[in-house]
């Protein structure tokens, strides 16, 4: 059976004691927990950014659709309305993923 030795005990040339090993494991757990939390926060921020950008696209395409309707361009209006619907669907799916990630549902 191979035993791991702490860095401090390796430097001192002696076998590690259980207190040092427990302290190292606790520190490793704390670091891993902080990393997981940082990943969660970063992922949530990216999902929010995606929803924000999708909604900005909705604003632009809605304005373009209104302009097409004003000038009797039905095919242009259809194109922009289709993009509005696609953007709303993408934003809604992403927002649902965000809610799942942060543990909220609505």
Question: What does this 3D model show about the protein?
Answer:
- Helix 2 runs antiparallel to helix 3 (74-102).
- The chain has one domain.
- With 106 residues, it is mainly α.
- The chain starts with 6 loop residues before the first helix and ends with a helix.
- It is rod-shaped and about 85 Å long.
- The protein is 83% helix and 0% strand.
- The longest helix is centred in the middle third of the chain and has 53 residues, at 18-70.
Number of domains: 1
Class computed from helices, strands and strand pairing: mainly alpha
Largest sheet report: none
SSE series: HHH
Radius of gyration: 27 Å
Tally of strands: 0
Shape assignment: rod-shaped
Query: What is the tally of helical segments?
Result: 3
First-residue to last-residue Cα separation: 52 Å
Which stretches of 5+ consecutive residues score pLDDT under 50? none
Percent of residues in helical segments?
over 70%
Taken as a percent bin, the fraction of beta residues is: under 5%
């Amino acid at each position: 059976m191979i035993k791991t030795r702490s860095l401090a005990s390796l430097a001192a040339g002696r076998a590690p004691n259980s207190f040092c090993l427990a302290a190292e494991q606790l520190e490793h757990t704390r670091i891993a927990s902080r990393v997981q939390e940082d990943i969660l926060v970063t992922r949530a921020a990216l999902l929010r950014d995606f929803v924000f950008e999708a909604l900005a696209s909705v604003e632009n395409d809605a304005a373009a659709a209104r302009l097409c309707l004003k000038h009797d361009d039905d095919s242009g209006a259809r194109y922009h309305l289709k993009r509005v619907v696609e953007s709303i669907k993408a934003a809604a799916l992403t927002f649902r993923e965000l809610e799942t990630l942060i543990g909220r549902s609505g």
